[in-house]
Design brief:
Helices cover about 40% and strands about 20% of the residues. By secondary structure, it is of the alpha/beta class. The chain has 4 domains: about 65-210, 3-Layer(aba) Sandwich (Rossmann fold), CATH 3.40.50.360; about 235-280 and about 385-440, Elongation Factor Tu (Ef-tu), domain 3, CATH 2.40.30.10; about 285-380, NADPH-cytochrome p450 Reductase, Chain A, domain 3 (Up-down Bundle); about 455-599, Rossmann fold (3-Layer(aba) Sandwich), CATH 3.40.50. The longest helix is centred in the N-terminal third of the chain and has 19 residues, at about 30-50.
Length: about 600
């Protein structure tokens, strides 16, 4: 072994430890020394508080089986969990592939040996858009036998909907029916994903260790001081409100706001199609009503788990008060001894109506029950951020992000009820104030890479927000493709969002075509899907010549109606039968020429 000059090494060791080190390393080859350096660096990281950074490691003699982490995600929760699992597998030294269901080659399923699927259920039992092709394939007769596959499913959902986690359940059962081996019991998570995610991640990593054999390599680390965490869902940034302007007329039954927010320089660098996640606060009046119904002071200390906060603080910042869930309704019905409420929770249509029209304060009033403050806080779902499509392009507005926010309002018992986030933004996010927000990238809803490709945008109501960003970006970058917008609202005079901008763009030739539908301006209601049918010949010609088609807005009614209209007009103007027309639309989706952002 060659001697290393002491001036080069300069170890902070005494003579005895230096001799031990020399004996330990004597005769080791390069791979062994590289592994040892990483092992020692990891110990140093733990003892010094420094962050270990993975470098390219030396290969192991025995290659391990690759794990695939596959995700289908509508709002980003599933993607984040899949990324966490993939990072953990990689840090442990195993080969792993992280991939969206939208990018996954379906025929590769027969080659998989170790698959972890994270998939959400969107709306009332629908798969997320990026997983629609995967779900259709697996549930069809074309799906192959998968006897060599080991799998585990993490299902995300919203218990406000009757078909909670339906997509994850269907795929979990289908994998088993196709002969695959279930590695872990299916885990189902409500919107408070973190409470179920931690244990599942540990179990999944343990499964990789037992199933994949030896790690593919040793982990080699170097050290650097820990850096500040990147902005994200758990590390929101404060954004100053520059403008908060109502964009519906005084006679409108809807209050829609245009917000302009200042971005920290160089941070939250969004692209058209991305969303901004906003952490709201519940209204003070709602918090006061609930405390009164509990017979408790807002200042009362309440402990949940290891956290102690005042009751008012819990209800203002940490708990959902405007969105009920089926599990909570069932718990409340049992406490209230109400067979009527229990029956409503068990019947899908009645439950849907209850979830849509009723908030926590209504439930407490109409079905009195005894809740201790700590019991109620524990039973309520954690407050979740709300996502809003960004209605601007950085290339046009600089370090700003614009939002289009409709104030959600209902009336119950003569009292006005509002949504937590929309009321927070519309009523309290005033000029000069700050809101807590984070960027939620949406790579499945992007402008075409080719600026010469035509685009068709269908966005009724606030669904038009991302298309304002699309048009701004195409103008700023000098895109040569044509732009066609379909917009719908209730009344032309009061609900034509961004009317002046669209008409000016149309006049300048930056917006090629504009078709609108205002449902309440005539006796017979007219919606965007009817305009699509009326313009079917031209719309199909645009598609046949390579246009990309975008839909944004309501998932429950608008999106299915628009899709049905598209299938019908494609069949009519291409000579296809309805099944072939539907297949054509699916092919457009696989080519990223039919993209939806529905909620």
């Amino acid at each position: 072994m060659s001697a290393i000059p002491s001036a080069t090494l300069a170890p902070p060791l005494d003579a005895e430890r230096s001799e031990l080190l020399a004996r330990l390393t004597d005769g080791l080859d390069g791979n062994a020394l590289t592994w040892l350096s990483g092992y020692l660096a990891g110990i140093a990281a733990e003892r010094s508080g420094l962050t270990p950074v993975a470098l390219e490691p030396a290969p192991r003699a025995e290659p391990a089986a690759r794990a695939t982490v596959l995700y289908g995600s509508q709002t980003g929760n599933g993607r984040r969990l899949a990324e966490q699992l993939a990072r953990a597998i990689e840090v442990a030294g195993f080969a792993v592939r992280l991939i969206s269901a939208a990018e996954y080659p379906l025929r590769a399923l027969v080659e998989e040996r170790l698959l972890f699927l994270v998939v959400s259920t969107h709306g009332d039992g629908d798969p997320p858009d990026d997983a629609r092709a995967l779900v259709d394939f697996l549930l069809s007769r074309r799906a192959p036998r998968l006897e060599r596959l080991g799998f585990a499913v993490f299902a995300l959902g919203d218990s406000s909907y009757p078909q909670f986690c339906a997509t994850g359940r269907a795929l979990d059962e289908r994998f088993e029916a196709l002969g695959a081996r279930r590695l872990l019991p299916r885990t189902e998570a409500d919107l408070d994903v973190e409470t179920r995610a931690g244990p599942w991640l540990e179990q999944a990593l343990a499964t990789v260790r037992s199933e994949a054999g030896n790690p593919r390599r040793a982990t080699v680390t170097t050290l650097r001081p820990a850096s500040a965490p990147e902005p994200g869902r758990d590390q929101p940034v404060a954004l100053e409100v520059l403008a908060n302007q109502r964009v519906t007329g005084r006679s409108s039954t809807r209050d829609v706001r245009h917000l302009e927010l200042a971005l920290p320089e160089g941070r939250l660098r969004y692209e058209p199609g991305d969303s901004l996640g906003v952490w709201p606060e519940n209204r003070a009046a709602t918090v006061a009503q609930i405390a009164l119904l509990l017979g408790a002071r807002q200042e009362l200390p309440v402990t949940v788990g290891s956290r102690e906060r005042s009751l008012g603080d819990w209800l203002t910042h940490d708990r959902e008060l405007t969105r009920l869930t089926r599990p909570f309704i069932e718990q409340h019905a049992a406490r209230a001894g109400s067979s009527e409420l229990a029956a409503r929770a068990a019947e899908p249509a009645a439950l849907r109506s209850l979830l849509r029209d009723c908030q926590l304060v209504d439930l407490l009033r109409e079905y009195p029950a005894r809740w201790a403050p700590d019991e109620l806080v524990t039973a309520l779902r954690p407050l979740a951020p709300r996502l809003y499509s960004i209605a601007s392009s950085r290339r046009a507005v600089g370090d700003e992000a614009h939002l289009t926010v409709a104030l959600l309002e209902t009336t119950r018992g003569g009292e006005r009820r509002t949504g937590a986030a929309s009321a927070y933004l519309a009523e309290r996010a005033r000029d000069g104030q700050q809101i807590r927000a984070f960027l939620e990238p949406n790579p499945r809803f992007r402008l075409p890479a080719d600026p010469a490709r035509d685009i068709i945008m269908i966005g009724p109501g606030t669904g038009v927000a991302p298309f304002r960003a699309f048009l701004q970006d195409r103008i700023a970058t000098g895109g040569t493709g044509r732009q066609w917008l379909f917009f719908g609202g209730r009344h032309f005079d009061s609900d034509f969002l961004y009317q002046a901008e669209w008409l000016e763009a149309l006049k300048r030739g930056e917006l090629t075509r504009l078709d609108v539908a205002f449902s309440r301006d005539q006796e017979q209601k007219v919606y965007v899907q009817q305009r699509l049918m009326e313009r079917g010949r031209d719309l199909y010609d645009w598609l046949a010549n390579g246009a990309a088609l975008y839909v944004c807005g309501d998932a429950e009614h608008m999106a299915p109606d628009v899709e049905a209209a598209l299938v019908s007009l494609i069949a009519r103007h291409s000579g296809r039968d309805p099944d072939a027309a539907k297949l054509y639309l699916q092919e457009l989706a696989s080519e990223k020429r039919y993209l939806r952002d529905v909620y």
